[in-house]
Amino acid sequence: MDLADALSRLDVELTRAQAEVPQAADLDGLAGCERTLLGRRAVVTDVHEQIKTFPPVDRPALGKAVGAFKQVVTALVEQRRTELADVERTLRLTRDAVDLTLPPRGRPRGHLHLVTQVQQELEDVFVGLGFRVAEGPEVETDFYNFEALNMPQAHPARSMWDTLYVKLGQPEEVLLRTHTSPVQIRVMQDQRPPIATVMPGRCYRRDTLDARHSPVFHQIEGLVVDRGITFGDLAGTIEAFTRAYFGDGRTARLRPSFFPFTEPSAEFEVTCFMCAGSGCGVCSRTGWLELGGCGMVDPNVFAAVGYDPEEYSGFAFGFGLERMAMTRYGVDHIKAFWDNDLRFLEQF
Ligand code: PHE
């Protein structure tokens, strides 16, 4: 082996190193490459050991070539080692990753109470029929709840409403309103005819709880005042409303009744939800369920708010919202609305 031979052998090895080292598939493969190129049986080791057999004049050149070869190949190996270590680290991280994300914990969402739903739906129906919506206070004075509604002090008709009084002002002057009718007075004081307004809200009576009565309940009041309003308008409005709210299968009827603030007065009934009119236990075999009262506004009520009864006429009605809901959804006890039992509430 002369100098040229030795250099060309190193050259061949270098080309091989440049081709193989960057291709090493993993750290083990790379270690194998390194052993072949730089180990005890490597070409460069052989050449290195034989330097002493060369003529002294060739030795420096050969020594330099051996050193350069080792340096270049070692650098290639180191570079590939770093690359492979990176790849293996990434692989290991993906393989060993533990997913610590917890499944989402759903937050239960509430919804509007059935009575509120019924109230909003009724408001929508009446707005569709051309009504406006108004509200009044739950704590009222005797004037609005009774006096202006044609029930002077000590009038026997007051006993129709078992009133809860509030300790304010004169005895029996401030009370929890027993119906939504006082809002009629407030609306008429506030506006001039034509009036077409519904007034939903909470009412209170000193009633004993039974299947259809609760000391706290809701009503929706209606009032229409203009020139030439007749009982026919009242009957037509009730019929239109019954169909819009209960559907075509139901019909309404009016039965003569008495309220101090309407004349004539009527009770408003719809066909029974249980038997569809044929008569059953729920409707006491009549086929009809009472929902509220109505009638033509009494001239004395107009006088209390300064309207001329010769010029204007009007009608009013008031329904219980819980009764409406019971009628439409077949709820058999009014208490269900106040128990706040989720098993009941969640059905609506
Ligand atoms: N306010 C009456 C009640 O609560 C119902 C009613 C309203 C009757 C309007 C006639 C006119 O019993």
Q: Structural class per helix/strand content?
A: alpha+beta
The tally of domains stands at 2
User: How big is the Rg?
Assistant: 48 Å
Percentage of residues in strands:
15-25%
Strand order of the largest sheet: 1-5-6-10-9-8-7
Q: How large is the count of helical segments?
A: 12
* 3D shape: rod-shaped
Sketch the topology as an H/E string, one letter per element. Answer: HHHHHEEHEEHEEHEEEHEHHH
Mind describing the biggest β-sheet? Answer: 7 strands, mixed
Bound molecules: phenylalanine
Number of strands: 10
Query: Could you give me the name of the CATH homologous superfamily of the largest domain?
Result: Bira Bifunctional Protein, Domain 2
CATH architecture of the largest domain: 2-Layer Sandwich
Assigned CATH class of the largest domain: Alpha Beta
CATH topology of the largest domain: BirA Bifunctional Protein, domain 2
Cα distance, first to last residue? 100 Å
Quick gist of this model?
With 348 residues, this protein is an alpha+beta fold.
